[in-house]
UniProtKB/TrEMBL annotation:
It is found in: Cytoplasm. Keywords: Aminoacyl-tRNA synthetase, ATP-binding, Cytoplasm, Ligase, Nucleotide-binding, Protein biosynthesis. The keyword Aminoacyl-tRNA synthetase applies. It is an enzyme of class 6 (ligase). Pfam families: HGTP_anticodon, tRNA-synt_2b. This is Glycine--tRNA ligase. It catalyses: tRNA(Gly) + glycine + ATP = glycyl-tRNA(Gly) + AMP + diphosphate. The lineage of its organism: Bacteria, Pseudomonadati, Bacteroidota, Cytophagia, Cytophagales. PANTHER family: DNA POLYMERASE SUBUNIT GAMMA-2, MITOCHONDRIAL (PTHR10745:SF8), GLYCYL-TRNA SYNTHETASE/DNA POLYMERASE SUBUNIT GAMMA-2 (PTHR10745). Substrate binds at R102, E219, F266, E267, Q268, M269, E270, E373, T374, S375, I376, G377. ATP binds at residues 251-253, 261-266, 333-334, 377-380. Catalyzes the attachment of glycine to tRNA(Gly). Belongs to the class-II aminoacyl-tRNA synthetase family. Its EC number is 6.1.1.14.
Amino acid sequence: MANQDDNLLKKIVAHAKEYGFVFPSSEIYDGLGAAYDYGQNGVELKNNIKNYWWKAMVQMNENIVGIDAAIFMHPTTWKASGHVDAFNDPLIDNKDSKKRYRADVLIEEHIAKIEAKIDKEVDKAAKRFGDKFDKAQFVATNERVLRYTEQIEMINGKMKAAIESGNLNQLKTLIEELEIADPVSGSKNWTDVRQFNLMFSTELGSLAEGANKIYLRPETAQGIFVNFLNVQKTGRMKLPFGIAQIGKAFRNEIIARQFIFRMREFEQMEMQFFVKPGEEMKWYEHWKAQRIKWHKILGLGEENYRFHDHLNLAHYANAACDIEFNFPMGFKELEGIHSRTDFDLKAHEEYSGKKIQFFDHQENRSYIPYVIETSIGLDRMFLAILAIAYTEETLEDGSERTVLKIPAALAPCKLAVLPLLQRDNLPEKGREIMDMLKYDFQCQYDEKDTIGKRYRRHDAIGTPYCVTVDHQTLEDNTVTLRDRDSAQQERIHINELKNKIEELVSLTGLLKKIQ
């Protein structure tokens, strides 16, 4: 299966480049590792994802507002947030391959292999027992499964203890005990584990020697926290309320790989929801339910999502989980939901010397609110959609096509207007239709090549509908509307086109399902 999946990722990377979704950054200079540019179709898809998130988060919730904070922040911000002292990855090098890895990720990948063995046992038993199979009972009683589960718990326990105590030697010992080999060379010749800070730093000021060291933000959340009072007072916000933001963040990832899954410059869509202390778990569960709903409504397959509860909680959290998605590389984090307590606002209050509290009129007292965070990687969301959308099909006539079955509301181009021929007034009629629809939809006009080739071209970029203008159009003002996924065509009057397309491709349908 792994090879197939590797193959799928390679196909997606090639397709994304060929059809203007994602290009390697500065490619004419041989590129820059883990940096990518979004092309003409990629930027449209990206904007549509942002729009879906923003509308679901801000427009649909009266108590959530948005901001756009600066990337550069006062350096003390990152002291208060803990990033200067604690934003480190435990890294280990293989002496033979000269490759560098995150020690915790190597251990987690080892655990994933044991989990795969459990899945294999469950699958075998399910085939053996058929309809009578009780998975829960099997997992709780099967000796081999229990042995694997015990192993996982033991490894997780040791890893958690090592990370929490900051004992890097214990991490190395665990890697050696588990006989983890370098995925590239198969060698087990490891260096010691050491910490590496992930923040990019630069200098503010015209003179380097008199300059202040500042950082490119490694997350967007702090811009929300430092603006808590500004937003609360100017918006007259009452608890509970949220502040949302979409923006770039920067991390000097040593192991940036797997296409746009892990990059050094990436985009986040985050919402921090401020609540009364003591009510955070109720809201944590609320946002878990809301966020998984937002994902599943897109129709990328319910089986491709799962919740993963954090065993190793960050220093600021009292509950945390990830929504994991089944990427071509397996299940990986797509979105994080964290109960951050009052850690952030309290730290900024302490470091700034300013009172950052909410005055509760009902209780007649001030207090620091607790925070529930939802944070999703926009680039990862983009990859998730491409991974499920990419489809190779053999049609009834034996021909093959590659189609991107992107949810219609997110597709880069919603509609292609195609005159059947480049004569007989068909292009003029096509232009007339194009001019009528371009105010409401992202449309493309295309008259080059045979109609079949043009359909294939639009299948490949995920255009959900094609309008074909033919000789009958000139007689009765009807066109054929072709559906991307089924390739079915229906005859429709030009006057009905706008409403029909609106119904098929608007975000409104999706947003109504969330409420």
